Amino acid sequence: METRTFEELVAEAESVSVEGWDFSWLDGRATEERPSWGYSRLVGERMAHALAALDIQTGGGELLAGLPRLPALTVATESWPPNIALATARLRPRGVVVVADDDEPRLPFGDGVFDLVISRHPVTTWWKEIARVLQPGGAYFSQQVGPASVGELTEFFLGPQPPGSGRDPERARAEAKAAGLEVIDLRLESLRAVFHDVGAVIYFLRKVIWIVPGFTVDRYRLELRTLHDRIQAEGPFVVHTTRFLIEARKPV
């Protein structure tokens, strides 16, 4: 296999688009274990029986576009303009309305509109708003990033991080309960992820901007060079992601 230089890897990873929420550019360059529960499959099962569904922070609409059946009323929200354009183009043929929203309360919908609300990897979960737009008996079903996900990568660039996390699943349980929802399922898993070259790391950090806030190649060139040399000498850089699944129902 041809060994590529640090500068070649950097130039390629800086030039590629990071729009949308499709990580296929990483095929062959990085791998990540998937949670055992199979979120997309479970969402598909719920969508098949829903009457009105909302996907919050849809990204480029990848999840909804891949589902076999959608309710007659399906709406998605997104805040980032490039993703809004992608999601609209992808989901319009499926009859999905994409609403530009700034990811802050208040959700731009009336009370009790949806019997199913979903969100994959939301930046923030506005539990009171979710409870408000759910019909009695409706459910919120979400896969979320868990505590200290890819913490090894964050600490490589930023140093040791303080303990505690706003992404603790038990905190999510408490906030859901405080909003008047009943948590009927909550699961947490730690999963192995592997980066085979520094270009994959650059692409990932450009796309998942909260892992190393303010990341740019120029700002972290020294650390990137160190990581490149480490991968060349020792092999792939291994980190661990965390994911949790939460399902909360609005009482009838």
From TrEMBL:
InterPro entries: 23S_rRNA_MeTrnsfrase_RlmA, Methyltransf_11, SAM-dependent_MTases_sf. The keyword Cytoplasm does not apply. Residues 54-140 form the Methyltransferase type domain. It holds the Pfam family Methyltransf_11. GO terms for molecular function: methyltransferase activity. Keywords: Methyltransferase, Transferase. The keyword Methyltransferase applies. This is SAM-dependent methyltransferase.
